[in-house]
Design goal:
This is Arsenate reductase. The chain is an alpha+beta fold and 116 residues long. The chain contains five helices and four strands, in the order E-H-E-H-H-H-E-E-H.
């Protein structure tokens, strides 16, 4: 199943979703309404290779909790990803067994190409 994990209230996510061809091929999962389960996070981890790759260091909570000043381990990244949706680097696409993390231009272009 092809999926997109996103935040419905995120302007960047909404803009990206509007630009997607064949978005009806995706299952949409709003991470605020449906928090990521441990099994979903595990699937992402298997595809990404690390929890840190899924973790957003741009999140305001990251800064306000002082996490940027700590030496976080993979276990820490996993814990925070499960605790609060804001720590997931969004959007995350899983398409045909491949993961695309975040909103950088190259990543989104690859997703558009794969969905076309």
């Amino acid at each position: 199943m092809n999926k997109i994990y996103y935040l419905a209230s995120c302007d960047t996510c909404r803009k990206i979703i509007k630009s997607l061809p064949n978005s009806n091929k995706l299952t949409f999962i709003d991470i605020r309404q449906n928090p990521i389960s441990e099994s979903e996070l595990e699937e992402m981890y298997q595809l990404a290779g690390s929890y840190e790759a899924l973790f957003s260091k741009k999140a305001q909570l990251y800064k306000s909790l002082g996490l940027k000043d700590k030496n976080l381990t993979e276990a820490d990244f996993k814990k925070y990803l499960l605790e609060h949706y804001t720590f997931l680097s969004r959007p995350v696409f899983i398409i045909d067994g491949k993961i695309y993390i975040g909103n950088n231009q190259k990543n989104i272009q690859e997703v558009i190409t794969v969905l076309s």
